Amino acid sequence: MDILIDVAIVVLMVVVIRLFLFAPFQVHGQSMCDTFNVFNGECYSGDGEYVLTSRLSTWDILDWSPTSIQRGDVVIFLAPYTEQKEYYIKRVIGLPGETVKVEDGYVYVEDEDGNFVQLEETYLNGDNYGNTNPHRTTSQIFAVPEDSYFVLGDNRMKSNDSRRCFQNIGCNENSSPYLEEDRIEGEVKMVIFPFSHFHWVSATEYSV
């Protein structure tokens, strides 16, 4: 009987941790290379690294949360516009209420004075730096609604992200380029497997 009680307690603790504190996810595809899913110097297109996410930023207790999502954070979220339950991994670029401009291969965020400031995206590799282009145009402005985010993959040329409304076909009248806050499952904190890839995911700082 004591063993059953101990097992039940352990199971309950695991469930609580999984639902409210931390959760593992497997990264699929090339959209976040070279930050994730690089094996032997090559960007891997299949199921790759396992990451651990913190769910603290998803808490909403009377409009209070112990932490908040910041620009540069990498998040796991439930993909919109898909029939199956699928999770995406992207980097947060635009915060609620901000205006983002994608133009001539670079990303800009409007500051408090109304000026567009280019983001210094040091995490992009040589192929992707200067190659952030909106879908089927050279310049586009995105006004991020409240309770939503503008997100991009680090592998800009192979990522279905906010620029394409998370779809291969791009945006249409029934889709939105913005990630709704309640779709976010957690903020990526570390790579946990394979063990040779284990590391903390460092915070990103910008001038805006």
Plain-language structure description:
The structure is a single chain. The protein is mainly β and 208 residues long. The chain has a single domain, classed as Ribbon (Umud Fragment, subunit A), CATH 2.10.109.10. 10% of the residues lie in helices and 33% in strands. It has one helix at residues 2-21, and strands at 22-28, 38-39, 42-43, 47-54, 74-78, 87-94, 99-103, 106-110, 116-118, 139-143, 148-152, 179-180, 184-193, 199-200. The strands form 3 sheets. Strands 1, 4, 5, 6, 11, 12, 13 and 14 form an 8-stranded antiparallel β-sheet that branches. Strands 9-8-7-10 form a 4-stranded antiparallel β-sheet, with no helix packed on it. A hairpin with an 8-residue loop joins strand 5 and strand 6 (87-94). The longest helix is centred in the N-terminal third of the chain and has 20 residues, at 2-21.
Number of strands: 14
Text of the CATH class = Mainly Beta
Radius of gyration: 18 Å
- CATH topology name, in short, is Umud Fragment, subunit A
Given helix and strand content, the structural type is mainly beta
Q: What is the number of helices? A: 1
Question: Summarize this, please?
Answer:
With about 210 residues, the chain is mainly beta.
Question: What descriptors fit this protein?
Answer:
208 residues, mainly beta, Umud Fragment, subunit A, eight-stranded antiparallel beta sheet, four-stranded antiparallel beta sheet, globular
